[in-house]
Every structure is written in structure tokens, then in C-alpha cells.
């Protein structure tokens, strides 16, 4: 299984200083063909470095910690819990450009449930890193499965990759769909169908990938 490695955050000691990070941005500005000393760009390195703190905030978060507080009093509720259309912004680990999409996260509780905002925060904890969509899908599903130990987990991600729309093949409007089904979502076709119909059946790919 994947997650102990996947969940590991970067040790602080390996982190360069803010000055080093800003110097690196100045190099990239020169590489782009511009002059980092011209007025309009003087504050850009500092802004870019601050933006990186937002874009990559997930490295500072322990995804398991987000799910640690659960509620065991579910009053006999044993139906599927679905949070759909969770918008996320991630960054492709090959080109460092945005991957923007929606996540649908579902589980069939067995003993414990979490507050629904926790599912959205779980998505962000993995999105705000350098990612590939397939890996992110697995990380979200496996973490939910390991921490909550539900009867089943279903995760579907639909996203547009700017590395495909603004460079390379330059194909805009293309959406990639990935999914991971665990437990009853994998073994029971009717559970999977229910999930897919709730989230609006994001495409045959989601079924093929299971
Ligand atoms: Zn890319």
C-alpha cells in the first residue's frame, strides 16, 4: 500500500531559504528573456515565492491528521456519504503548471464518520503539492480508507491540465478522469453505480479504471 510514503511531508532542514528561492526566480526571469532588475519585475521574485507557499501548502499538512477527529455516533446511518464537485487546484509535477478540476469523494461508513469539510480539506492536502492526477486519486482514496476503515471508498477526479492546453499538444477543453474504488465500491457493482449516478457519471473512463 502506498500511503506512509505518500503522506510524508518534506523535512524542514532540506528547505532552501527565502532568499535562495527568490534568487532562483530571478534566474528563471532571465531564462524567460526578461530583466529582473526592471521596475515591473523588482518585487516579482518575492511575490512568486509567497505564491508558492499557497500553491504548495499541502506539504505542511498531514492528511491523516485532518481525518483524526471522527464521530462514532452515527445513529444507525449506513448509507453512502458523498461530497461531490470539490473544486481543487493542483500542479503538474512534470511542468509545474496548474491542474484544475473537481473531486468526488464517497465512502460507506462502518463505524465512524468525519465532518464533510474534512473531505474537502483532505483533497486540498494532496492537491496543494506537485502531482500527477493518478497519484492524487490513489492518495485521497487510500488515506480515507486507512484512517476511517469504512466498508468502501470511491474517489473520482476530473481535471483539465494546463500543461496540455497551454503547451505541448495545445488541446484545450480536454478533461482527464481518474478513479479509485475500494471495498464495496470495487466489489459491488450496484454501490459503484449508485456513486456514479450521484456524481453525474463523469465518463466511461471512471468505470474502466476500476
Ligand atoms: Zn504536465
UniProtKB/TrEMBL annotation:
Listed GO CC annotations: cytoplasm
InterPro entries membership: GTP-CH-I_C/QueF, GTP-CH-I_N, GTP_CycHdrlase_I, GTP_CycHdrlase_I_CS, GTP_CycHdrlase_I_dom
Keywords recorded for this protein, A-Z: GTP-binding, Hydrolase, Metal-binding, Nucleotide-binding, One-carbon metabolism, Zinc
Keyword Coiled coil included in the entry's annotation: no
Signal peptide, first to last residue: none
EC supergroup of this enzyme: hydrolase
Polar residues bias locations: 1-10
Record PANTHER family: GTP CYCLOHYDROLASE 1, GTP CYCLOHYDROLASE I
UniProt record similarity statement: Belongs to the GTP cyclohydrolase I family.
Protein name stated in the entry: GTP cyclohydrolase 1
Source species of the chain: Paraburkholderia ginsengisoli
Recorded name of the encoding gene: folE
Amino acid at each position: 500500500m502506498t500511503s506512509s510514503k505518500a503522506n510524508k511531508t518534506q523535512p524542514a532542514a532540506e528547505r532552501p531559504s527565502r532568499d535562495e528561492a527568490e534568487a532562483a526566480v530571478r534566474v528563471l526571469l532571465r531564462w524567460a528573456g526578461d530583466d529582473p532588475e526592471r521596475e515591473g519585475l523588482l518585487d516579482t521574485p518575492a511575490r512568486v515565492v509567497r505564491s508558492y507557499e499557497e500553491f504548495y501548502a499541502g506539504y505542511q499538512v498531514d492528511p491523516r491528521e485532518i481525518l483524526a477527529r471522527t464521530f462514532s455516533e452515527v445513529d444507525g446511518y449506513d448509507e453512502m456519504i458523498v461530497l461531490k464537485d470539490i473544486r481543487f487546484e493542483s500542479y503538474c509535477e512534470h511542468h509545474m503548471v496548474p491542474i484544475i478540476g473537481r473531486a468526488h469523494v464517497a465512502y460507506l461508513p462502518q463505524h465512524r464518520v468525519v465532518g464533510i469539510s474534512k473531505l474537502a480539506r483532505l483533497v486540498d492536502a494532496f492537491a496543494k503539492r506537485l502531482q500527477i492526477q493518478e497519484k492524487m486519486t490513489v492518495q485521497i482514496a487510500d488515506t480515507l480508507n486507512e484512517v476511517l476503515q469504512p466498508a468502501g471508498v470511491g474517489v473520482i477526479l476530473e481535471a483539465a491540465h494546463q500543461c496540455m492546453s497551454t503547451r505541448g499538444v495545445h488541446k484545450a477543453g480536454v478533461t482527464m478522469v481518474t478513479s479509485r474504488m475500494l471495498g464495496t465500491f470495487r466489489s459491488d457493482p450496484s454501490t459503484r453505480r449508485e456513486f456514479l449516478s450521484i456524481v453525474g457519471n463523469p465518463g466511461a473512463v471512471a468505470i474502466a479504471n476500476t
